[in-house]
Specification:
It catalyses: ATP + protein L-histidine = ADP + protein N-phospho-L-histidine. It is an enzyme of class 2 (transferase). This is histidine kinase. It holds the Pfam family HATPase_c. It is built from six helices and seven strands. The chain is α+β, with helices and mostly antiparallel strands and 213 residues long. The chain folds into two domains: 53 residues; 151 residues, 2-Layer Sandwich (Heat Shock Protein 90), CATH 3.30.565.10. The radius of gyration is 19 Å and the shape is globular. The structure holds adenosine-5'-triphosphate (ATP) and magnesium ion (MG).
Length: 213
Amino acid sequence: MISHEIRNPLTLVSSALQIIEIQHPEVINFHGWSQAIEDIEFMCNLLNELSDFNNGSTLHHSVFSLEKLLKNIAVSFAMSLDSINSNIEFTSKISLNSDNYTGDKIKFEEVILNLLQNAKDAVSEKTFTDSKGSIFLCAEKISDSIVISCTDNGCGISDDIVNTIFDPFVTYKTNGTGLGLALSKKIIEAHGGTLIVTSSDETGTVFTITLPV
Ligand SMILES: Nc1ncnc2c1ncn2[C@@H]1O[C@H](COP(=O)(O)OP(=O)(O)OP(=O)(O)O)[C@@H](O)[C@H]1O
Ligand SMILES: [Mg+2]
């Protein structure tokens, strides 16, 4: 509620600044102008994430093809890498053979995007000499579970911080909010599943979602 109430006046401030910019284009050159715009945008995003976080366990169920959803996300993610991160290799193997998963489609997409975005950040963080950055999204049905994993060969997570990464507001990035994983875990658990991580500095990181069918 609080984040919602702050977001409304903040949106007014943001619109007012946009109008000023249209009427007086010279302000773009003012010292601190673009930084102020960026900071307001960040606050709006942060408030959006905060309300998402609160609603993490409230699911809006529908029946959808998890396989199709994951394949679409994989295509968009691959496209987003093509333009700027051509040094990252993205592959996926999605074979679920089931068209009717019941869950919250939008929240599900959010989780996968969070994991892929984190993987992209982790890979971009690392300097590769003989190899290349790689991200692999895999989804398969293993006995009575759907197992979705996101593997990267990025910077890895050290043992001393790995236990903290699912806590809200824990971030080790300059522009992170630290809500991505906390929210993702909440969403997966609301679906009756688990989200776990295994990581090492040398090989990278694997996040695994296990969902009951
Ligand atoms: N694939 C990964 N490889 C290495 N570190 C990771 C990976 N995924 C998450 N982390 C670590 O876990 C921390 C928490 O991740 P989380 O997604 O919750 O927040 P964030 O990415 O920092 O910010 P945001 O809220 O914008 O997602 C990150 O700051 C990062 O240090
Ligand atoms: Mg994140």
